[in-house]
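Progress against Task 2.4 (sequence-to-structure conversion) is shown through the following example record, which the project officer requested during the mid-term review.
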Amino acid sequence: MALLHKAELRPSKLELLASWLPDQDWYDGGSAAGVTRVASYRFDDPAGAVGVETLLVRVGDGPMYQVPVTYRGTPLADADDRLLGTAHHSALGQRWVYDACGDPVYAVVLTAAILGGAVQAQEFFEVDGVREHRPPSMEITSSCADRSDPPVVAGPLRVVDGDPTLIVTDSVELAVVRRLGAGAVREDAALCGTLLGQPAPMPLAYAVPR
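C-alpha cells generated for the chain above:
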C-alpha cells in the first residue's frame, strides 16, 4: 500500500524530468520542456522507507518514455550519477529523487513483481484521518508462468544505460524498457502494463535469473 500525501513538491517531478531527460542517450528529443505524465504505477518498499514510482511521460506528440524513480529522505551512497535532483515535499521535507535503475530497493521490488508475482501498490490519500483510494492509471501484470519465491537480490552490481537499461545483480539480470513500444518483444519473463482505455499490454521490463 502506498499512502500518498496531498502535498506540494518543489520542484515538481515533471520539472526534474524536464532537466534530466535531455542528458539521457535513450531520449530522442531535444528539449524536454512541456513533458507530461501519461500514467504511473508504484511498488511497495518492503522496509517502508523508500518511495518507488514509475512515470510514463511524453513530450508533445513524441514517443512515450518510462522513468522509474525512487524518493529517499537521505542521500543514497555512491549514487550521485543517478540523482535527478532534490525537492522539498511540503509534508515530508527534503527528498532525494533518483533514477531507480541504480537504487538497490528498485532491483528488489522489480524482481519480486516479475518473478514473484508481487502486485503494484494500491494508492491511498489520507484526508482528515480518512483514507481515500486512488484508482490506478494503468494495470501491471507479469508473464512469468512459475511465480515462486523470487531470488534474493542484494542490489545492482552494475547498470548499463541504454534502451533497455540493464540492471545486473548477483542473482538476476533486469532490463527496463525506456522507449515504450519501440523495440522487439523478448521471450523472457516480462512485466507488462495496460493503460486505461488501451487494451493491448506493453512490455515494461524483463527478468532473467542468473
